[in-house]
Each structure stands twice: as C-alpha cells, then as structure tokens.
Amino acid sequence: MSSKAKKGKEPITSGEKTSLYTKENRAENLQLSIAKKEIIYQNTEKEKRASELVLANEELAFQSDEKEKRAAELIIANKELAFQNKEKQKRADELYVLNEQLRAKEQQLQNHINAIAVSNASIEFDLEGYILTANQNFLKIMGYAKKDLIGKHHSLFVDKEYAKSAAYKQFWTTLKKGVYQKDEFQRVTKKGKSVWLLGSYNPILDISGNPYKILKLATDVTLAKRQFLQLATEAVEKEKRASELVIAVKELAFQNKEKEKRAAELIIANKELEFQNEQKEKRASELVIAVKELAFQNEEKEKRAAELIIANKELEFQNNQKEDRASELVIAVKELAFQNEEKEKRAAELIIANKELEFQNKQKEKRAIELVTAHKELAHQSREKEKRAAELIIANKKLALENIQKEKRKAEKEKSAAALIVTNRELAYQEKRGKELTLANNELKKAQEELGAFSYSVSHDLRAPIRAINGYTQILVEDHADSIDEDGKKVLQAVIHNSRKMGLLIDDLLAFSKLGRKQVSASAINMDALVNGVINDIVFDADAKTPLFDLQALAPSNGDPSLIKQVWINLISNAIKYSQYKPEIRIKITSAVQKDKIVYCVQDYGAGFDMEYYDKLFGVFQRLHSQEEFDGTGIGLAIVQKIVSRHHGAVWAESKLDTGSSFYFSLPNIQH
Amino acid sequence: MNYDNIEILFAEDSLDDAMLTIRALTKSGFTNKLLHVKDGAEALDFIYCRGVYAERNPNSHPKLFLLDLKMPKVSGMQVLEKIKGDPDFKSIPVVILTSSQEDPDIAKCYDLGANSYIVKPVDSNNFFNAIKEMGMYWMILSQPSL
Fold it and tell me: CATH number, domain at B82?
C-alpha cells in the first residue's frame, strides 16, 4: 500500500516539472530521455517486489496462527480483568462514603475555625516566636498592618524589660515543648498603649505529635481589666475610708454632744442679743436724731464761725481804729483848748471888729478871694499828700523787692519837698537795716491808717469854709447883682462852680475815709439779684446810648450787701462812662468759682487805659484820663479797692488802650 | 435883751454857718424869735436859765432847737444827751445840724433821741431849701408833744 502511494505521487511531481519545462523549449528533449531511463528502473524494481510479496504472504499465514493463539489468551485475561474491575468498583464506593464523611467533618471544623476567628484575635508563631500570620481582630487590637508583622518576633508585643528577662525565655521554652498556656497577658500596641489580652498559646502538633507552630487565641479585656483594677483600688480606698468614717462618726457623735451643749448656750446668748439689739435700735434711733441735731448745730456753728472770723477781723480793725481815734481825740482835746482860747481872743477882736464893720466888709471881699486861693492851695496840698502817701507805699515795696530801684528812689527823694527829708532819713535808715523793713512797713501801714483818720477830720472841717465861700458868693449873686458887672458875675459863677466841685471831692473823700471805720456785715448775697438791681437802677441820660449787658449767671457770695452793691455800681458806671465814645456800649459780667475764692469780672470794650500806669489805678484822686475827656473825682476805684480789701478780697484789672478793660474783684469762698 | 418867748434856739459855733442859716430861715418867711448861741455850754445855760439867762422865764420853752454837733466846750452830742435825758426838756424837738452825711455820730444822735438831722450842703441853694423845709415841718406842721 505504501508503494502505491509512492507511485501516485511521482507523476504529479513530474507533471509540475513538465509544465515548468514547457515554458523553456530548449530543456524539453533532455527531460524525455531521463523519463525513459526512469521507467526501465521501475520495472526491475517491480519484479523484485513481487518476490518479496510471496515471502510476506508466507509470513502472514504464520502470524495468523499466532494471533488466534493470542486471542484465546486475551479472552482469559479479559475475564480476569472483569473480576478485578468489580473489586475496584466496590472499593471506589467505599472511598466515596469515606470522602463524604471527611468533607462534612472539614466543613464542621472550618465553621469552628471561622467562629473562633470572628470572636477572637488570633496569631500564629513559629517555634522560635516569629510571626507567621495574624487575623484582622488581632491587627485591630494591636494597631499593626499585616505586612508589618509577618516575620517579626513576638517580643514586639511585650514590655522591653520583660522581653529581656529569663521569665520570657522560659515562656517560649515551655511552648516549644508543646505545653499549652492560658492567662491574661499584658501586651503593648504599636502606639505604645498597654492592653490586656485573655487567651491561650496553643502549640500545634504535626502527625508525629511534635509541635511545629504556636497558635495564640485571645480576647481584648483591657476595659474589664482596668475596671477591675480600678475597683480593686477603690475597694482598698473604701476600706480605708470606712475605717476613717468609723473614727469620724465617733468624732461627730462627740461634736454633736458639744453642739447640743453650745446650742443651749446660744439660745441663752441669742435671747441676750435680742435684748441688746432692741436696746441698740432704741439707741440708734436716738443717735440718728442726735446726729441730725449735731449736723444742724455744726452747720450753725460753721456759719457762726465764718461770721465770727469776719467779725473778729472787723473788731480787730475797729480796735486799732479806736485806739488811733483815742490818741487823735487827746490831740483834738488839746486842740480844742487851744481853739477856745483863740475863740475868746476872737470874741474880743469881734467887739473891735464891730466898730470897724464897714472896713471889714471890704476886708471880707478881699478875704473871699484869698479863701479861694487858700482853698485851691489846700486842695493841692491834699492831693500832694495823697500822692506822697501812695509814692511811699510803692517806694517801700520796691525797696524790699529790688535794690536796683534804690537809686531811682534817691532821685525821687531829691525831687521831694523839704517835708520829705524826714522820710528820706527813714528810708536811709531802712536801707541800712533791711531786717527792720517789715517793722517799717507796719509803721507805714499805721501811718496810712492815721492818714485815713486825718483825711476824715480834714474833709469834715474843710466842708465848713467851702460852704461859707459858696454861701457868701451866692449872697453876692442874689443880693448885690446890681453893683457887679457881667465879668464879675462870671467870676462869681466860677467860684460857685468850683466850691461845689470841692464839696463833691470832699464828700467822696469822706465816703472813702468812712469805709475804713464802717462795720462790715456778713450775710449771703444773691449776686444775680444784686447786679440786676444795680443795672436797673442806673439812670441814663435821654440822649445817651443804652448799654448792652451780657450778664452771665453769677455765683452767690458772702459779704456786706450795701458795700458790695457800691462796688458793682462803681465798676459798672465806670464801664459805661469809659465806653461812651464807642459806637455801642457792651458790658460783660461774669463770675468764676475757684478753690478758695469767687472772682467777678466786669468787662467793657471802651477807652481802656495804659497798663504802664496800672500802679496809679486804684489810688485816691488818681485819674488816668483828663477831666475834659471823662468826668470824675478819681475816687471810685479807690472805694472799690477799699471795700473789697475790707472783705479780705482782691481787686485787679487788665486793659488795652482803646480796646477795653476788665476789672476783677474776688471774695473769699466761705463755702469752701 | 429879753430872752422870753424864744421860739427857735440855734446853737452853732460857726458864725458863717449861723449867718447863712438865719438868712435862709428869714428868706423863707420864718420871722419867729430866734436865739443864736455859740456853743453847747451857752445852749445849756439858756435851757436851764443859768448865767446870762438866769433871769428869763423858766416856763417858756423853745418850739425848735437847731443843734450843731461840732462845737467847742460842750459838744452838740453832750447837749443832746443832757436835755433828752431830762424829763423837763426832752419834749423839745431837736434837729441836728451836721457837716456831713458820713458823720458817724448821726446814728448816736438818733439813739439819744434827736428828732431829725440836716446835712449842711456845700451848695447854698440846697442848703437854703433844706433849712426852709426843716423850718416848715417843725414850726408849722409838727405839734409839740406835751
């Protein structure tokens, strides 16, 4: 069969070759010769093969015999196999049953393992203590990831000191021997927290009964353990406390007895206190009344004290004045004795004079003229004296304060009249003895006071001759008009006018002098009402401008209302007078309460004055404006100063020429 | 001189003031019988009928006594004190004449019983009017209390 297949194959191959050769005509003849040789070779081969096939047939016949023999043997073998198969089936059935049983048991076991794994933490170690695996519960409790643990040693979970200890080595030696260990174990988590694990180390045995790994099963009992420890501690505490309480109870019992005793005492004490309280309330209400009474008395006394202080000062001053006056009176009495003699002489003279009446009439006319002259002289002298007094005060003050002023003073002294020689000596004396300056000042003050008394009596006595001059001149005008020509009449009017003026000056001087001796009363003054009264009382000329008052609320004060009213009258009328040439007259009146005084101010926007002459401002008969410009006697501000100083206050002023002036006076703040 | 029926007693040491006062009274129409004495002593002599007045009628009292305060020998104040303290003469109206309103003695005079006072003004017109009014009141309107 295989040869047939070979033959069949060849033509297909030559055919392919032929197709190849047809494409190339040159090679076609060569191809055909080769094919003829091939066929010859194949015929010889076929004869050889036929002989071989005869031999093969003979072989086959022998083989068929063998096959029959073998078939018979196979039948026997088949029968044997069939028996064996039956045996095998039996055994297979038995194995299946066993397998089923085994699978059920495995399932059961797996269930147990799962149950254990879910409710317990588990970890497996090799016998040396290196970690093989761990379940989720364990990882969760200890805070590790599984990959961090595999291959690490169990000592990772225990206290470092313990890990080094012999007890720990013994622990593992025991496990290696396959001994099961169960306890509460203290372990350390990854974060270093201490946990308590309740469980067991279970050595796992191989088939031969030798341990090959350790399974640890555990439950986290940290919370319970802690509570237990806490409870144990508390229990100890409670026992301690209990024994303390026993002592405390005994103590309390003792104290209770003491308290009962004390309570009984307190009841008695309370009754006593109640009684005392009632007594005290009674006394308290009495005291309240007494306190009010005292407060009232205190106020009264304070008021009285303040009044007394002023009154005392006043009395002191009056005493001085009276002493002065007494000494004056002694002189006056002597003077009177002298005058009496003079009068008697005069009476005798009058008898002679009567005989010479006609002559005297002529003489009187002459005398009238002389009197006018004398009068002027007196007025001049009076002014000079005042000036001198004022100069002396200033000179003394300057002397005390500044030695530089001495030379100036000397120059002034040289200028002074012969009357000043005594004073010059005094000054020279004072220069030499600066320490006695205070004494000298006091003497000067005394001299001032004497001068005040003197000016009173002088002005009183001056009035009489002036009255006579005025009266006689009036008689000439009324009764002898026919015998006097027009020029003469004018002169007489001038005499009347000047004597009248002199009278006014004397009145003012007298008023000023009187302030030195007038008693100053002290009572509360409603300054608002007082000033409003002054403003309303001011009489204006019909053609004069109406002043505009800016009157602020004024603080009340204490003093002599009539005198303080005079202060306001003088200051306000001055303010009006010196504003008369301004387009409008504005006057502002204010007060300011200070710690120990109350300051009042009258401000105008009038002519003002030159502060260079401030020293003369408050002097008697001192004027900073001419008579033609502003009418006045020059005594108003002197009176203001006198009144205020009698009230222990102060007067001062500020001014700018042509812009206006502010006059201030202060009174003591008695409330304070 | 007859000192009986003197209606106005006038004590004033200043002859000038006396002359002007008398002139003012006369000009005002008071022609009453007036006696001018030059000091307090003389005034008291008149009241008590002593010295030159010893012979006068003691029952005749002046209707008005004008008294200057400042007088030699016996002052107006002393005269006032004397007669106002005497029951026989205290009913005589006394008007005080003074040089100044500021005279501290004015209040004292009232205390002693003076009936009024007049300030002698410098201005003679005012003086004249003051005297005239005073005379009018005391001599005509006022009735002596007896």
Answer: 3.40.50.2300
- Cα–Cα distances in angstroms (integers) from residue A66 to residues A58, A63, A70, A72, A77, in the given order: 13, 5, 6, 10, 16
The answer to whether the CB of A665 falls within 8 A of the CB of A568 is no
Asked whether the beta carbons of residue B16 and residue A471 sit closer than 8 angstroms, the reply is yes
Torsion over CA of A175, A180, A185 and A189, rounded to 10 degrees?
60
Structural domains in chain A? 2-108 (no CATH), 120-220 (3.30.450.20), 356-516 (no CATH), 520-668 (3.30.565.10)
Give Rg (Cα) of chain A.
Answer: 77
Closest residue on chain A to B75 (Cα)? A336
Separation in Å, CA of B23 to nearest CA in chain A: 10
| Tens-binned pLDDT, residue by residue, of chain B (146 aa) | 678 888 899 999 888 888 888 888 888 777 778 899 998 999 999 999 998 998 888 888 898 899 998 888 888 999 999 999 999 999 999 999 887 665 667 888 999 999 988 888 777 777 778 878 887 787 776 655 44
From chain B, the residues in CB contact with A463 under 8 A are 99-100, 120, 122
Phi, psi of A587 (to 5 degrees): -135, 130
Say if CB A467 and CB B120 are below 8 A apart: yes
Which DSSP state fits A259? Answer: H
Instruction: List CB contacts (< 8 A) between A467 and chain B.
Output: 16-17, 20, 99, 120-122, 124, 127
* B52 within domain boundaries: yes
Residues of B in contact with A517 (CB under 8 A): 104
**CB–CB contact B120 A463 (8 Å):** yes
Phi and psi, residue B41, nearest 5°: -65, -45
Q: Across the interface, do A467 and B23 touch by the CB < 8 Å criterion?
A: no
Q: What is the pLDDT of residue A12?
A: 47
pLDDT, tens only, A131-140: 999 888 888 8
Count: domains in chain B? 1
Domain that holds residue B51: 8-141
Q: Is the pLDDT of residue A6 over 50?
A: no
**B102, B119, B128, B129: best mutation site toward chain A, by most A Cβ within 10 Å?**
B102
For residue B84, being part of any structural domain is answered with: yes
